[in-house]
Structures are given as C-alpha cells and as structure tokens.
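Escalated from tier 1: flavin-adenine dinucleotide holo job.
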Amino acid sequence: MLADDLRAEFIALLGAGRLHDDIDTLALYSHDETPRHCPPEAVLFPASHDHVVGIVKIAAREHLPLTARGAGSGNVGGAMPTPGSLVVSFECMNRILEFDPDNRLMVVEPGVVTDDIDKLARSAGLMYAPDPGSGAYCRIGGNLAMNAAGPRCVKYGATRDHVLGLRAVLGDGREIRSGSRTTKYATAYDLTRLLVGSEGTLALITEATLKLIPAPEQVASIRVCYTSNADACRAVERVMRLPALPYALEFMDGRAIDAIREYGAATGLPADTAAVLMVEADGRADEVAQRLIQFERALSGPGMIEIQSGFSRDEIVRLWTARKSLSHAVKKIAPLKINEDVVVPVSRLAELVQAIDALASKHRLPIVSFGHAGNGNLHVNLMVHHDDTEEMARARACRLELVTTVLGLGGSLSGEHGIGSEKRQFLPLEFDPVNIDFMRQLKALFDPIGILNPGKKLPD
Ligand SMILES: Cc1cc2nc3c(=O)[nH]c(=O)nc-3n(C[C@H](O)[C@H](O)[C@H](O)COP(=O)(O)OP(=O)(O)OC[C@H]3O[C@@H](n4cnc5c(N)ncnc54)[C@H](O)[C@@H]3O)c2cc1C
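Tier 2 regenerated the structure:
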C-alpha cells in the first residue's frame, strides 16, 4: 500500500479519480499477456505531459519504480509491474494533437489506439504503415516502446522507421525532445531511434511525431499451399529476391495447419497442405496486377500444390480465413503458449524451420510456428501445461536450444515483441559483456536512480 502522504501528493498532482489502488484495479494491471502477475502499489492515470513530469519527480525522490503501460497487450512481461512499483497507465493521454496531411505527419499522445492513427491518415489518402495484429486495442506508446511491427513491415519497416520525433520524460523528471518535423534530419545524435524499442526503461514517452506515407490504391492477396515447410521457405527466398517487395509475406507451418484443421477452419485448403504462405501486393491497380503475376511466378516451384489470388474484399477475407483462425486454434492444443519471436536472415529460414521440427521431436512438445516470413521473423509457440513440471523442464531446455540455434543462424532473440522480463536472461547469449555494460551505462544516463521499468530488457 502506498503511504497516505504519498497517496495524497499524487492525488493533489493528478486530481481525483486518477489514482486507483483498489484490489480489482491492482489485479487488472498486474500483468500483460504473459501468465506472470505482480500487483503494483497503485495505478496512476496521467492526463498530460506535466502530470507525467510530476509523477516521475515524486517517484525519483522516493525511489519508487514506475512501469509504463499502454494496453497491456505485450507478450514479454514488459508492462508487468515489479514489486513495490507504480503503474503509469497512458490510457487517458489519448489525444491526436495534430494531423498535418501536407507534411504527412501526425502528432499523438502515447495512449492513442494504433488503428485510429491509420484510420485518420486514410481519410487524407495516407497511411500509418506499422500494423501489429493487436492494432485494434494496443496503444502507440506501447508500439514505440517495443518497436512493434506487423505484416506490412516487410515492405514499409517497423515502428522505428515511422517516427520523426519524440517528447519524453527521463528518470529524474527532466524533459527530452528528439528528432524534428522533417523527413530529413542530420543535426543531433539519433535519440529517437534509441528511445524506440527501449521498453519504458530509458524514458516515458509523452508525445510522438509520426511519419505518414501515401496509402496504396489497391491491395490483392495470394494464398499458396505447399507439401512441406522447406518448399514454402524456399519460395519466400525467391519472392524476396524480386525487385518489388510484397505488402505482406506470412508463413504458417505444418503444425499450425494441423491446429487449424482440428479447429475446423481449414475449409478450402487441399488435403495434403503442410505449409501455407499468404502474400500481398499493393500499389496502383495496374501495378498490383503486374506484381501479382511476378509473385505468383516466384511462388510456383517444388512442392506447390495450390495458388489462389483475390482482389475483392470478400475474396481477400476468404483467403485469410485459415490464417485469422490460427490464434484461436492454437489455444486448443494446450493451455499455455510460450511464445518466442525469433528472427533470422531470410536465406536461413528453411534451416530454422527444420531445426524447430527437430526440437519438437527431441523435446516431445507441440511447437506451432508462423509469422512474418519476409522478415525472417517467426513466432515459435511451445504449447505446454504450466502444472506439468516435467513438461515445463523440457520446454525450458527447448527454449535454450532454440535461442542458440537462432543465434547460430545469424539471427536475433526478438523481431518485434521485445525482451521484457521474459527473455532478458538470454541477452548474454547474443551480446558480449562490453555491449551489455554499455547498455547499462546508457540506462544510467537516462534513468540515474534506476526507477524506470527495472527488471526489464537488461539482464541482472
Ligand atoms: C493478439 C496479439 C497480437 C499481437 N500482434 C503483434 C504484432 O503483429 N506485432 C507486434 O509487434 N506485436 C504484437 N503483439 C504484441 C503487443 O501488442 C505489442 O508489443 C504492442 O506494441 C504493445 O502495446 P501496448 O499498448 O499493449 O503496450 P503494453 O503491453 O502496455 O507495454 C509494452 C511496453 O511498452 C512500455 N510502454 C508503454 N507505454 C509507454 C510509454 N508511453 N513510454 C514508455 N514506455 C511505454 C511498457 O512499459 C512495456 O514495456 C500482439 C499481441 C497480441 C495479444
């Protein structure tokens, strides 16, 4: 429980109704999408940049840890409080401060829902390119903190590539501004790119100037079925060698297809389908037709058993049905999914998928893999029962081998979900002590007292 005088000080700063410490709220804000929980001492709902400055100043004085939170949709424990911490929820800082179509930018507070940014941009023929699957409810502050991405990022890049500038509060309450409102900028060190992906450990982001790009006139989809994972991965390599990049290039492995079949959503997939690619083309109508032909040629090859394309909304929805059912289908396999988010160079994807199959057999675990194949980014889901200690031990050993394999293929621990509390123990496998020490020194510069999201991102 927060001491009475501190509680009163926060209420005086924020106004009534912006501090909640009842048991239900604490339980609600004790976790993100990961199964671990840790209730905070209180949840604060700032409504302005000045509120955030005030909160951080009090917290720094009292050495109180702060955990920033968007929608809590992260899947690495990034928004999970640490013992004795306060949650700073950005849900009420949800204003779009400026929409400037002439300069193709939007200035937003961190609590704006990601899809709302794209929707507003589209009203002027523009788009906000990053499209996480959680876009209907996650917040732009969470996306910035995690460098979130989605299917479109194979062509347009992740969140980091769409931020012009930031306003943020450091761990001692000082304000920092980075970047500019221009698409060219060669003035200062690039603190924007550093803060994006910093997972609430360096600063609390209170405002972002986002870059918008012209929205494509048309998008068309292709669904391709293969008899093996390896054949699908080889097709990915062929597509990624073309001069035109796809708007999306998504992969589902054989175990994912089995799950969809068991769930009853595999209607329309040929019986011997063991891997599926979903590919999209965008551009002007004439360009899309041309790109579809190029993609179809590259996708055709050994092991391809069916290729279907669609231009209309209904056709596109039909082609994506199996893929969209996947997250529900996976839940039927086992109650808990340990979700790795590894990334390898595209030319090593086939080796990764083969290694995952071998790990599934060796550790006797159902492993469902799918994801953004065009970026070499796979969500590798180890399906387990948390009350089965023997199975959980196998899963731990399997995770370690998976990470080692990924690093051996020239890859990295995370493509888009970040590190949070769940993956930080693996960081020393990817980075040497000099590198980790340098990151610690950077954190100390931004957060001298160490109150911003401790226990996340960096190993102990
Ligand atoms: C169904 C589903 C689909 C998903 N699909 C994708 C996907 O396609 N691509 C993808 O990248 N991710 C995906 N995710 C993961 C998740 O949605 C993203 O990581 C998202 O960016 C988290 O946003 P959030 O608002 O929920 O942030 P939270 O989970 O609340 O927080 C995430 C991190 O951001 C920090 N943070 C939040 N706000 C601020 C701020 N203002 N300043 C500083 N730090 C802050 C938190 O401390 C935490 O470390 C998915 C999750 C689900 C459940």
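The CA atoms of residues 220 and 312 lie 8 Å apart.
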